[in-house]
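Priority: low. Protein: Peptidase S54 rhomboid domain-containing protein. Input follows.
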Amino acid sequence: MSFTNAPVTRSLVLGLAATSIAANLFDVKHYFYILVDPHVLRYHQAWRVLLYQLCYTNSSEVLFAAMTLYNMRVVERTWGSRKYASFILTSACITAILPPVILAVMLRPLTFGAFNYLPAGPTPIIFAVLAQYHAMIPHIYKYRLALSASSPTDDESAGLTFSDKSYRYLLAVQLALFQWPGSLLGAAVGWVVGYSWRNDLLPRMFTSWRVPWWVVGIRTQKRSEGFEGLRRRLEGEDSPTATATGARVGAESDADTGRRRTMGQQIIDQVRGAF
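Result:
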């Protein structure tokens, strides 16, 4: 797998796999999901909202989440690692609070306590990234699957139309349905947060904030040195061009005057110029 120019995505995939494996090895999975009753209402364990997005509790969700994040690494390449990391942290903070609050205040009372479980995993964050991927990355091609062998090929309603992005959406949909309705709630909240961030519907402090450069392994001084090196290389490319132009003009002048210098005279001129 290639994570070129996507260090944040690589860290997310490796970190998600590591925390999920550790939670299973040390048998602490019961700390990462939320039951409104009793965790919140009776035991007042508000700290669970800070933990439930750190890992998944089964290997299937880890696999689908890692594949989805990997397929959406183009978002980081388009934005840059600093902006992408800022978006991930902002979405993580918002989605850590909204799904538990919506579940406890609205959905659980409306369902008379039947909707009480919020599963572990960063599904809201992944769907926030998926909203950006859907809005900014165009499809390359489309194809149609016929519903029957006798369907005419020119009929638009004769089959299902997909694009090259469809299988990425199918991975994400499967992730949202693993432990529904709790996982579906997280996916819906993440999608709304992603589009709100993109359309500047969130407060300015969320959309304009950026992580420091050192967080993503880039320093301002190194960037300045990189721009300075690029400027020097461009100037260096211009200098040989000017030198070649001057030499060509000099050669044409010598040809016009009928003078030709021998190899020995050229070597003497170079030695004289050195002293």
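DSSP finds eleven helices and four strands in the chain. Confidence is low (pLDDT under 50) at residues 251-259.
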